[in-house]
Every structure is written in C-alpha cells, then in structure tokens.
Amino acid sequence: MKKGKVMLIGPIGSGKSTLTARLLEESSPVLKTQSLNYRDWIIDTPGEYSENPMFYRSLMATSLEARVLLVVQDATKHFQVLPPNFSGGFPIVALGVITKIDHPDADLMKAEQILRQVLPFQAIFRVSSVTLAGISELRAAILGYF
Ligand SMILES: Nc1nc2c(ncn2[C@@H]2O[C@H](COP(=O)(O)OP(=O)(O)OP(=O)(O)O)[C@@H](O)[C@H]2O)c(=O)[nH]1
Ligand SMILES: [Mg+2]
Prior knowledge:
alpha/beta; Rossmann fold; six-stranded mixed β-sheet; 6 strands; binds guanosine-5'-triphosphate; binds magnesium ion
C-alpha cells in the first residue's frame, strides 16, 4: 500500500481493534488497546482517546500520518461521545463504520443517526467482525483512496 495509513477512532469497546484484525485478515482475539497501536497499514487508537478531549490533540497529530480516518460506531450503542462534526477537523478522508451489525441489540437506524452527528456527509459502512459481513466492501472502499 502507498504512503499513509488508515486510522480508527471511536468509543471504548466499539470494536476498533477487532475490525483492525479483520481488515488485516487476522482471526486472533484482541486485547484492550492501551496506547496508539501501529499495525501494518492501520493505526488503532484506544477508545479513551475518543472519549476524553484531553487526547484530541494526539489524535489530530497522529492523523497526519494517515490518509483515511474510520469513525467507528457500535450498532448497539445509543450515544455519541465525539463532538458534532468532529471528522471535519481532520485533514484526511473520513468514512463511517457501524460495527456489530450481527448483534441482537443492533439498531442500525439509530446508530446511523448518531454517527451522522460526527460525520454529516461521508459514506457509512455497516460491518460485523463476527460474520465478516461488509468487511470486504469496507476494505475495497479504503483501497480506493490509495
Ligand atoms: N457481536 C459482535 N461483537 C463484536 C464485534 N466487534 C467487536 N466485538 C466485541 O466488542 C468488544 C470490544 O471490541 P474491541 O475490538 O476490543 O473494541 P475497541 O474499540 O478496540 O475497544 P478499546 O480498545 O477499549 O477502545 C469485544 O468483546 C469484541 O469481541 C462485532 O462485529 N460483533
Ligand atoms: Mg482496541
């Protein structure tokens, strides 16, 4: 892949690291993310960085190494932790990803509504890291930016 990485942001437990593993075609279980985690062409971030404004500067600085930003929203969660239009503050392409669409408590309409607060106009992908639904489509869309 050409220069630039894909950076994932989103709340604690929203499925960023599991999605990272699926995009890298790994099946190993993931651990709680403790710090910025450079994995091949992906930069995985701890959910705390999205939940605590103290870390926003760090996210912004790290995004300079990235070409694509994935804003992750858990389909089972009905709240937004990021500020309105947060993705607009990043100088790179932003895409939305709704994770856990396989989950019995998933509410895709609600998740999309919540994600739109952060990402008003950009494309939103729906994925499951369990069934792998939507993963290859997301990977193909990302590759289109490289
Ligand atoms: N059902 C279901 N569970 C998922 C999916 N993706 C992740 N999970 C589960 O959600 C939990 C959190 O996943 P992580 O990938 O660690 O979440 P994270 O966003 O990296 O969390 P932090 O590192 O704390 O920021 C784990 O128990 C995963 O197994 C999915 O697509 N479907
Ligand atoms: Mg993680």
